Amino acid sequence: MGSIFGLRGVFSIQGPRSIYVYSLFIGLLSGFGAYGFNWVLTWTESFTFGSLMGYNPGIPSGDMHFHSIGNVVSISPFWILFLPAIGGLFVGIITSFFCAEAQGGGTDSLIYSFHFKEGKIQAKVPFYKALATILTLGSGGSGGKEGPTAQIGAGVGSSLAGFLGAGARARRTLMLAGTAGGLGAIFRAPLGGAITAVEMVYQEDIESDSLVPCILSSVTAYLTYTSIAGSGSIFSVQEYSLNDYRHIPLYIVLGLLCYVVGFFFVKVYHLVQDIFSKLPLPNFLKPAFGGLIVGCIALLFPEVLGSGFGLIQRMINGEVLESTSFSFSGPFFLLAVALFKIFSTSVTVGSGSSGGLLGPSFAIGGMLGAFVGAMAQTLFPELGIIIFPFLLVGMGSFFAGVARAPIAGMVMVCDMIGSYELLPPLMIVSVIAVVLSHKFSIYRNQIKNRFLSPSHHWDMNQDIMDRIRITDHFSEFRKYAMVSEHVSLTELQSNAPGIQASDFILIGSGEEYKGIVSLRKNRILPEFEEDLKNLITCGEIVQDVPSVNRNDTLGKALQILLEYDVDKLAIVEDGKCLGYLRYIDLFNAYQNEVKNKQRKSV
After folding, report:
1. Closest listed residue to residue 543, CA positions, set 509, 514, 508
2. Where are the transmembrane segments (predicted)?
């Protein structure tokens, strides 16, 4: 019986290995969640695009498992104009009255949660985010699928961390692991999903502490998703390699173009966000108004509707895109689609509808790459230019520039096509775009690096902590929260309020250190206290947490506290426990050390 009510202690996060195991579990759930979302969205689009609007945007090879758009009626200007507004109205009702966090791109809110909310996400957010995105994209809004799938995974990770009573550090890691799982599944990008998750939170850094959990989650989500939806990459691409180095100057031109258009995209998107935030309309009507604007754009360029991935697959297949509305084709048609996609995406997401920015960034970059390739075909026929490599390189490079994520942009595209043959030109173009784009980002909540993030605000001064020995500041240690291993859990729960502690140092009969018992992770519910009285001892649920001695540093002590998610640490010498130190004791010692150094420098 004791083992039953100690389950939370058994399953609590007790170090990196626990994080790895839970990352696999999060990846599994993220994969199922991404599949369910994509299934509902694809069926919705098959009705709205095929039966109402009469426009077939195409479908990427990786989504062929799902129901594609079948019989398409003739183009309906009425539905193209008004359906995005109808979808926006429903989204506005959801975000205004049920879940405000469901609006916008989703990724920016995840970044904000990581830095400023300790990775906390309300449990309702993934559901409403998925529903709002289905309404947005299903009605023709311009956005990506990654927002809700990332939110689903991140919500699973955050909720699981909350259930396990994990600390802020573990919660942030599990949240990012869930984000990676959602991205890895929906884009069929096991490594790209992980890299994107750890790179998107900073402008010039990566969250290296979460890299392994993110890889585990993303790979698991990918395997789960493809085991149901079929194996293969999201795009089907013929074999290609860069064997004509005369093409390299053209890729350099593409990098410069990605920078210029990326700067324009970021400025337009942020401007639209600011305009809609100040617009004198009720909040629930703003997405509908934005949808009406998108409908007006789509009357001229229905190619801007949806994610744009279907158009990319059609061009990869060698199809020459022509305007659906009027006789217009060629390189400048592709450039026009890219520019109007910028406006439609900015208005869709900036007005408060729900959709990701990563997918449209790929679509815009793909059109820019196709524009450069098509122009090169016309101007330099002797070079034997093939358009689709430029299209794919433009996808990754444009996203790398606007999101300040160079590695993610390269790896994500390679994963999405199932080949790394395009990695050399991707590296060239992505580096150009990122280096030139160092002063702007599509994500407003990105922070420059980990040392400026509240989530790592002690890392910057870790060198100081590592130089301070415990004996330099402490000669005596607290003993109030030290209990015998033979004390029952019910007795400890009864005495805890008087001691004002939740974590307790456990000692044996000879005052030897046994470990730590945390009432945050092990607690008998009041209705079972009488039945289980004196049946479960603290020694049966003890957590094995390393101790330190007086000659160890504050840095080592802090590392143990963070890694094992406890609020106090045992000080042991000659086999006996002398007492313990708390978080606040370490911070006070650090502050005193800093003050002493400041006085000496005056």
Report:
1. 514
2. 20-41, 78-100, 174-198, 210-236, 248-269, 289-312, 324-343, 355-376, 383-402, 422-442
